[in-house]
């Protein structure tokens, strides 16, 4: 059994590894929510998930935090695909606009994040969440802080 040294991978390589290896045994927000990384390109990432009753808000529709988490993941991982090995990121700001409610009946949601700018210290990205019929559920933007080693 070979072990992958994820610290040696660029952000793009790491996202490709996650997509192909599907390390479901690794605790993550994706595993918790049932998100699947479905597409990876440099500067663009998409995730899908199926809605479940446990995602319900008090009104019985999918809680807005699910769309926000999908957007944060897709936009942040899109930023990550632009970073070299040993460089990380964290979300500084997340803005979400909710467009329509979603039922908890197993429909598939797709979130796509696309990088707008990736600089030395910050990066920005935009994203969309679509329902199974291709209708816009939510959209957002993010600013990420790029985390480099001291002196880098």
From TrEMBL:
<dbReference type="InterPro" id="IPR006683">
    <property type="entry name" value="Thioestr_dom"/>
</dbReference>
<dbReference type="InterPro" id="IPR003736">
    <property type="entry name" value="PAAI_dom"/>
</dbReference>
<protein>
    <submittedName>
        <fullName>PaaI family thioesterase</fullName>
        <ecNumber>3.1.2.-</ecNumber>
    </submittedName>
</protein>
<dbReference type="InterPro" id="IPR029069">
    <property type="entry name" value="HotDog_dom_sf"/>
</dbReference>
<keyword id="KW-0378">Hydrolase</keyword>
<feature type="domain" description="Thioesterase">
    <location>
        <begin position="60"/>
        <end position="138"/>
    </location>
</feature>
<dbReference type="Pfam" id="PF03061">
    <property type="entry name" value="4HBT"/>
</dbReference>
<dbReference type="GO" id="GO:0016787">
    <property type="term" value="F:hydrolase activity"/>
</dbReference>
């Amino acid at each position: 059994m070979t072990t992958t040294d994820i610290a040696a991978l660029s952000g793009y390589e790491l996202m490709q590894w996650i997509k192909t290896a599907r390390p479901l045994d690794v605790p993550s927000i994706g595993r918790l929510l049932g998100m699947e990384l479905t597409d990876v390109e440099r500067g663009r990432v998409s995730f899908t998930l199926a809605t479940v009753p446990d995602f319900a808000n008090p009104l019985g529709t999918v809680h807005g935090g699910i769309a926000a988490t999908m957007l944060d993941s897709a936009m942040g991982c899109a930023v990550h695909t632009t970073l070299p090995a040993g460089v990380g990121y964290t979300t500084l700001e997340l803005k979400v606009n909710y467009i329509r409610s979603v039922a908890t009946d197993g429909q598939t949601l797709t979130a796509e994040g696309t990088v707008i700018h990736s600089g030395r210290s910050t990066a920005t990205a935009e994203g969309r969440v679509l329902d199974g019929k291709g209708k816009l559920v939510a959209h957002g933007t993010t600013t990420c802080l790029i985390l480099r080693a001291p002196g880098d």
